């Protein structure tokens, strides 16, 4: 009987030991993972912080500023736009007045007078010799100018003709005459030349 009781007691002791071990193990198991979590939490600040670009910083600042401002109605926004336009327009006016004054000062300092179209110029007027091809219009002759020049690259003589209208106040020149004309101020829509003399009469 004593031998039979001994195994029972040993079995009871074994179960109690296993239950104690099971009860102790859940308490110890969370302690083990807590250490790595604490280490991980401690390592997070040690990692390098990612730097924001200028555009991202500017966007964040604008967002923060917009969140601070109170919400506005569409009418208030329109009024702000109008005020901003008025401010910019006044700034433009001030700048233009300043630029105008600077230009005026620069022109007053320069001693060269501004020449109008009808004032006499210091340049030499062009002179051409040509043949009259028409004298039908009153006080106007049509002159054909023949030009022969050597080509710059190919050295060939290139001939070309051009026609112009010249003022003939006395209707002196006739068709076929060889005349000399000189450049003048605009006398009509097409006349920019004036008859100087008739070199050779038509036969």
Describe the overall structure.
The chain is α+β, with helices and mostly antiparallel strands and 203 residues long. Among the domains are: 77-107; 127-200, OB fold (Dihydrolipoamide Acetyltransferase, E2P) (Beta Barrel). It has helices at 2-43, 54-68, 74-109, and strands spanning 127-134, 140-150, 157-167, 178-183, 191-200. It has a five-stranded mixed beta barrel with strand order 1-2-3-5-4. A hairpin with a 6-residue loop joins β2 and β3 (157-167). It is elongated, with a radius of gyration of 53 Å. The N and C termini lie far apart (173 Å). The model is unreliable at 1-8 and 26-33 (pLDDT under 50).
Kindly report the name of the CATH homologous superfamily of the domain at 127-200. Answer: Nucleic acid-binding proteins
At the fold tier of CATH, the topology name of the domain at 127-200 is OB fold (Dihydrolipoamide Acetyltransferase, E2P)
Spans of 5+ residues with little confidence (pLDDT < 50)? Answer: 1-8, 26-33
Please list the strands of the largest sheet in the order they lie side by side.
Answer: 1-2-3-5-4
The CATH architecture of the domain at 127-200 is Beta Barrel
Task: Please estimate the helix content.
Answer: 40-55%
